[in-house]
Amino acid sequence: MMLCRLILAVAATFAVASASCAQPLVSAPVGKIQGEMDGTARVFRGIPYAVPPVGPLRWRAPEPMPRWKGVRNADNFGPACYQPMAPAGVYTNAPAVMSEDCLYLNIWAPQDAKKAPVLVWIHGGALTGGFSHESLYNGAKMAARGVILVSINYRLGVLGFLAHPELSAESPLKTSGNYGLLDQIEALRWVQRNIAAFGGDPSNVTIAGESAGGLSVMYLMAAPAARGLFAKAIAESAYMISMPALKERANGTPSAEETGMTVMTKLHAHSIADLRALNGAAMTVLASAVGYAPWMTVDGQIIPHQLADTFDRGEQAPVPLLAGFNSGEIRSLRVLAPPAPATAADYEKAIRAKYADLADEFLRLYPSADYAESILKTTRDGLYGWTAERLARKQTGLGQPAYLYLFDHGYPDEEAANLHGFHGSELPYVFGTLDRTIPLWPKIPAMQVESDLSDAMLDYWTSFARTGQPTAKNAPAWPAYGTTAAYMDIADSPHPAQHLMPGMYALNEQVVCRRRAGGDQPWGWNVGLASPPLPPATAHCQ
User: Fold this and answer.
1) Model confidence at 11, in pLDDT bands (50, 70, 90)?
2) Is residue 9's pLDDT more than 60?
3) Is 515 found in the same domain as 411?
4) 502 and 370 within one domain
């Protein structure tokens, strides 16, 4: 071991050291970092990318990590950000260690990387949970295909998204909230400054995420401060729902600052100083218990407009895009779907009362004959289906290539649990981690059809990160959405198709357009039986 350390010390003068001791050493602008080998990939775990946001730095924009002295040992993942314990379910996998000092990232890099494409992964979890080193996100298979994977933590829950008048007053921008998004932007800046030392190309960075990670991708596309920090985007199961405004009630939602004041009262605090004095772990749990749900905030600065407005204006990042959703999204998220009525007649009566002149089209797409399934599909499409196709359409309108997919794959244990194509079920295939799924995840069988599908998806995702065009060995060409509304139907194998779920996008676009025009209704999962009576059509919404 002493000899190994001596070799590493000598090699530290080079950007990428010899891996002869299975302990690769990198000399980056931030400092020297020693990692480990995982097969043919160099792995660097738990690299801090910002100063810990604790004490007086709680609810402040992240500060860049200064250069450290000596060699930082990157052989252990950093702690996850504080989060409440999730209820038992398919996604339950509590992190071993949590802390307010949690702004860390991890890197999987090919051993001989030179100007390699970089994919920055943003985890999901409703902005409330999740962490960068979830077993599903292991990057060794991506590195084997020549792509550097960077996975990041960002502040969650009340610590990541609380807005409050006191916080706005002390901010240089006079805004508050969005701290978790600012963390993501700081991580991207860290990548720009340091990834070349790992063999990465800072001009070829793809941001990618699923669920709340996909939501984050859209906000990064909309955030002026993130412009130029990435060249491509991947949004899996993203949702373009309405978000609170900083100071005004809008779209039927209290302002973010009003919500922050309510949370402060419920936590029996009288000032931000009081809240900063509270234990971060306890406050995270208590805020969740009193009903605080984190959202990003439309503040006119970090997030200038509602996402729907930004993409309508064509003000989002003009980058190639890959986006899609899963056929059974709501099968594992039934809390998002309203309860079923007693009879099909009750279902149809309720829909006609809520959707008025759009009821016939709604019932054509989501019929009463099997209203239990229709309820699941309604929420799926209102959240994820409409969003995915809207992203493809809007990027195409900017003259950028956009690639749309539907993940409709199932396997025996998943089918037995009535979870065909459930939310997030594409992730093991994208990362090639079929054998690393979390405890209650339906077990993926060791069958050729599963490994072949994973190989194809790994190829598509990594080639998109490399060139902006998804291609795969032994799999069909993936056409851009373009003028033919093309998409990839990913079932037991990928098959190109056209016109995804005809009528789905048009109906949901009309619903959201009316709500935006009315200004007093949110949009998202309040569709179908959960919908308030829709505003009438306007000249703008035809």
Assistant:
1) very low
2) no
3) yes
4) yes
Q: Which tokens sit at 357?
A: 């002149």
Q: Give the pair of three-digit tokens for residue 297.
A: 């905030």
pLDDT for residue 332 is more than 80: yes
- Tell how strand 98-99 and strand 80-81 pair up: parallel
63 catalytic, yes or no? no
> Is residue 311 domain-shared with residue 360, that is, in the same domain?
no
Confidence at residue 8, expressed as pLDDT on a 0 to 100 scale: 35
Position 21 scores a pLDDT of: 47
* Active-site entry in 133, 164, 409, 423: 423
229 inside domain? yes
| Structural domain span for residue 306 | 43-57+76-319
Q: Does 158 share its domain with 277?
A: yes
Choice among 99, 132, 211, 332 that is catalytic: 211
Triad 247, 250, 251: Cα angle to 5°:
155
How far apart CA 80 and CA 502 sit, in angstroms, is 42
- Indicate if 86 and 123 belong to the same structural domain: yes
Active site residue 329: yes
Q: Are residues 299 and 378 in the same domain?
A: no
| CA dist., res. 120 & res. 86, Å (int) | 25
User: How many structural domains comprise the chain?
Assistant: 2
Q: Which residue has the tokens 């109906």?
A: 507
AA identity, residue 305: H
* Catalytic site residue from 257, 329, 348, 389: 329
Residue 7, domain member (yes or no): no
- 314: domain CATH number is 3.40.50.1820
Q: Catalytic site residue 423?
A: yes
pLDDT over threshold 60, residue 14 = no
Indicate the SS3 state at residue 25: strand
pLDDT at 19 over 60: no
